[in-house]
Amino acid sequence: MPYGYNGKILHVDLTHAKLSVETPPESFYRTYMGGSAMGLYYILKEMPKGADALSPENVLTIMNSVVTGAAISGQSRVNVSARSPFTRGIGDSQSGGFFPAELKFAGFDGIVVKGSSPKPVYLWINNGAAELRDASHLTGKLTGEVDQVLKAELGDQKIEILQYGLSAEKGVLYSSMMSMANRNNGRTGMGLVAHSKNLKAIVVRGTNKPELADSKALSVVSKAGPKMLPDNPDMAGLAKYGTASVVLPQHSMGTLPTRNYSEGAFESAEDISGEKLYDVYLRGAADGKQDSKGRDTCYACIVRCKRVVELEGKYPVDPLYGGPEYETIGTFGSYCGVKDLPAVSRANQICNAYGVDSISCGATIAFAMECFEKGIITTEQTGGLELKFGDPDIMLEVLDQIVNASTPLGKLLGQGSERVAAVWGNGADECLITVKGQEAPAHMPQAKRSLGLIYAVNPFGADHQSSEHDWMIEDGIASDLYMSRLALLGMPERLPAMSLGPEKVKFAYLTEAFYSMLDSLELCQFVWGPGWTLYGPQETADMVNAVTGWDVTVDELVKVGERRIHLMRVFNAREGMNRNADKLPKKFYQALQGEGPTAGMSLTHEEIESALDEYYRLAEMTPNGVPTKGKLEKLDLAWAAELI
Amino acid sequence: MPIIRVPSLFKYYLEGQAEIRLTGRTVGEVLQVLVREFPKIQSHILDNNSQLRRHINLFVNSDNIRDLKNLETQVSEGDVIKIVPSVTGG
Fold first, then answer.
1. Nearest by CB: B88 against A237, A474, A479
2. Which among A474, A480, A529 is the nearest to B8, CB-wise?
3. Residue B84 forms contact with A (CB below 8 Å)
4. For the segment B5-62, what is each residue's pLDDT rounded down to a tens digit?
5. Total CB pairs under 8 A between chain A and B
6. CA A517 → CA A6, A524, B76, B82, distances in Å?
7. ipTM, 2 decimals?
8. Backbone angles phi, psi at A220, to 5 degrees
9. Which residues of A touch B55 (CB under 8 A)?
10. Alpha-carbon distance A610 to A506, whole Å?
């Protein structure tokens, strides 16, 4: 009997309505650990080359990991992967909450879904017993409504549900998977893939926690966390103000994307800050009780960084749909020039209620605003709307049209800005901030140079949670704690903030591998990481060993991360995506406008091309960014080499 | 005199300088001199009540002033006061 995990993967053939259970050996789990890496194994093995993302041939995987459900902060996360209809390459999404742990307790470490059902169904897993049930009655409902119906239907308020939302039914290309009506597996359109399979939801209930190898050792690692919290000012800020705590630092550093990434400082940053959210808009703020009423958490996590907003008035917000994270505040706030935090919170609710990626959605609206402001489009294309920056009502009106696909404008914007630009023409492509078709998140590579590289090479498009950011290793600034942790990855020296030379590329690659491992172990990157987080690399290895009884090292964990990166690039290479897809938008090479530390800054083609050369060399890929047989063999992935 | 050190991007507020020597016997006194000589930085490190902004960490050498005596922490020749915005993710 394994420790920490079930040793069971559920296979679902929706076309034939057949379920089966696989029991992979321990070596399989130790090689992939779970999450994204494990999902990729099945996707590459079972999805034929060239399969359309919305065809029955696409393979959708839902994976937790060997440590999910252990009694320690930041371990309850789930990966959903498949071929992305949005980026056309591999799709990858992560979220937290309680669903991941419940899936583990329900008896499975992951689910592999193939085919498609002739009618909507949901997968019901109850303490090891799995069946498909009719879900026709769940269509046309908001995520919160679906949760209510299923809990009543199954007579259990403690079930956890992962579902696609109404916007997937409307064909929005960046539709997501949602749990708890406020945890969003946001990126790359996994909700639309699930909809194409008619798999409306995965519903789980479990009471069987896997045995741990060494509970005492886990307790030692776990207890170190609360002790460190008061002394780690960055973590204390995250706990109290959520990810929104980074709005003001980003603004001060000139890396808060403003008016569709045209500027790096937002004059109204205070109005959309984490402090403002905490002081005024969190549930309970009026009575000074926001710490108890306005903060939420994931299974077993002490950090409590999630926001709960409850508002009445012009922009009502139901606390069921949570509160905005930093990215949502960025894309619906500063990207759109909107300074109204209630309106941004309302936008967050709509994204969660309908199941769309708030990053791509808000960024696409901001893109449309810039096109309108520049005269690239007129009211003819917008159905009469004046899409100006700074107007919260226009922002919400357009959002409503997108999630409901209720107008020609809404339907078009629901395809993402890159496809919109192709339709509008007239220079609209100059306003894009997409990589591999997906809109960039709210961390600007003009200021965080290594992100320029990571945004380009990340196999599923620009992603800010795929590596550490430059100021973590900044010369003269980086703390001894951060440096001691980065040294474990092979980065003992501080580096100039704005460099993108070989040493910075090495920093990018090594931290990318570590973050990639976190997305396979399904660990929260706000609790586990190589720098500012509660637990560092050694604690990560210690925790894995305490749960599983293994003797992993930090190096072994980094190798798991490299496996995931290389498997993703194998997938993309098989579909014809290599260096040709590792391209940044033109806008990143144009001088930023406005004021602040980054005004006038831009990336250069020379530095990015040079960084790409160095990255591929370091990763032992070809100069065209394709994984090599030699490296794949080193990573115990010889089977994947056969695919390209 | 103690030294104020800022991240690279904050040089914008200090006329291109990443390090400056300023007078003051405590961290608070040094900050007052800083914002007087470089007013552009004031709103980024102090709030409307002249209190240290919640997202700004100050270190004297390696120690967070919250572990010492906050703005009353004494500083002397050669001490480095680092201004570090909180760097969580999201």
1. A237
2. A474
3. yes
4. 999 999 999 999 999 999 999 999 999 999 999 999 999 999 989 899 999 999 999 8
5. 101
6. 20, 11, 44, 32
7. 0.96
8. -65, -45
9. 237, 241, 245-246, 248-249, 274-275
10. 13
